Amino acid sequence: MSLQHETEDALASRLVEVRRSLHREPELSNEEFRTTEKLRGWLNEAGIRVLDLPLKTGLIAEVGQGNGSIVAIRCDIDALPIEEQTGLPYASAIPGKMHACGHDFHSAVILGAALLLKKREHELPGKVRILFQPAEETGHGAEEVLASGGLDGVQAIFGLHNSPELPTGTFGTRTGALTAGVDRFEITVKGVGAHAAYPENGVDTIVTAAQIITMLQTVVSRLNSTQEPVVLSVTRINGGFTWNVLPEKVELEGTVRTYNEAIRRSIPAQMTRIIEGIAAAAGAEAKLHWYPGPPATVNHGEWADFTKAAAARAGYEVHDIPPQMGGEDFAYYLQQIPGAFVNIGTGPNHALHHPQFDVDETALLPAAKYFAALAEQALAKLKPQA
Ligand code: NI
To answer: By 3-state DSSP, what share of the chain in percent is helix, strand and coil, each rounded to 5?
Structure first.
């Protein structure tokens, strides 16, 4: 008993060290070279095999044996272009970069789970792929991982995000959409420039753009069911350069957030009709440019319930949490592999992406133990009946 506690204390301080080491040297999406090197070093040291995959950054390790079931546990490893203002002794040593979304916490948790699973390697009824994913913040890392083939054969996948809103010791997830589909758009409105005193000589792009902005809100309020949440935000307007000239071009940019994939797919056409219709009425030309991001993260009911039951067994206070309008590229995995994404309480703390964001490090060891147990229990559930 006391030996077990000693080992756990050692692992707890190890995970704090790991997290702080990553925290000190944050790297942006697709530039996580040093982070990958450190993770590889820690895995090698523990005798955990790392798969040989065509990934520039990030890696996938594997623990377990046999030709039975395979499950995956995933963290993300990238940081953000934010100047840290925590004043912590282990604050970012790299100007303008910060682990302000807690991906250092995620990496330490999943490394901890890997170390715990390694100790039980010969008891595992299958294999666990341990995924350290690059480039979550830019929304494309998951697609790179899927293309690498590193998740081939995986029957269930689980991922985590820390939650500064949930107190340490609590756990949250839900069946169905947990995070939103995140798409970006740009709109260009072209008219004819004119002297501001003689608008009749031009085609006014400012008035046209203003009507487009206002009418676009009817995508939310008139064109889609009130039962299906949609957010459409115009976040940038660029046009004009002085007070007495009407510009010939205005650019708009913004984002659309949805949970329902069918609605998500129908929105570009709805927006195009409004944009082109208003422009035509004004004698201008307007065009929509659509940049799809990750779809909604839709948890599979059976596995969401499974993560909650495992969390309750691990001593967490379990909550059903409401869906969030933020995005998460774990969504791509859940389109192909059953599984669930969960939130681990590390709060109360500043919000994600805040320059004073921090996590409660006492949440590290329980989360690592939870993910090791979750993976092993999932393997047992998937084990073919003899
Ligand atoms: Ni994040």
So the answer is: 40, 30, 35
Which position has the token pair 């005193």? 197
Give how far Cα 272 sits from Cα of 156, 215, 222, 253, Å: 38, 12, 15, 14
Please determine, for residue 220, whether its predicted confidence score (pLDDT) is greater than 80: yes
What DSSP assignment string belongs to 289-324?
EEEE----EEE-HHHHHHHHHHHHHTTPEEEEPPPB
pLDDT of residue 386 exceeding 80, the answer is no
Mean pLDDT of 13-31: 98
Distance in Å, CA 281 to ligand 1 centroid = 43
Q: What are phi and psi of 70, to 5 degrees?
A: -130, 130
Residue 76 near residue 103 (C-beta atoms within 8 A): yes
Distance 78 CA to ligand 1 centre (A): 9
d(CA 36, CA 133): 10
Q: How far is the CA of 353 from the centre of ligand 1 (A)?
A: 8
Q: In angstroms, what is the span from residue 272 Cα to ligand 1's centroid?
A: 32
Model confidence, pTM: 0.92
DSSP β-ladder status, 126-133 and 317-320 = unpaired
- The terminus-to-terminus CA distance of the chain in angstroms comes to 35
Mean pLDDT to the nearest integer, 55-69: 94
> Which is nearest to 271 in space by CA: 184, 331, 206, 190?
184
Going from the Cα of 290 to the center of ligand 1, the distance in angstroms, rounded, reads 24
Q: What is the mean pLDDT of residues 53-74?
A: 96
Whole-angstrom CA distances from 58 to 14, 102, 164, 364 are: 21, 16, 25, 21
Question: Cβ contacts of residue 167 below 8 Å, gap of 6+?
Answer: 345, 347, 348
77 Cα to the center of ligand 1, angstroms: 9
**Tokens found for residue 80:** 């953000």
Q: What is the pLDDT of residue 68?
A: 86
Between β-strands 170-173 and 317-320, what pairing exists: parallel, antiparallel or unpaired? parallel
* Residue recorded with tokens 């940038």: 236
- What is the CA(52)–ligand 1 centre distance, in A? 26
Number of H helices, E strands in the chain: 9, 16
Residue type, 153: G
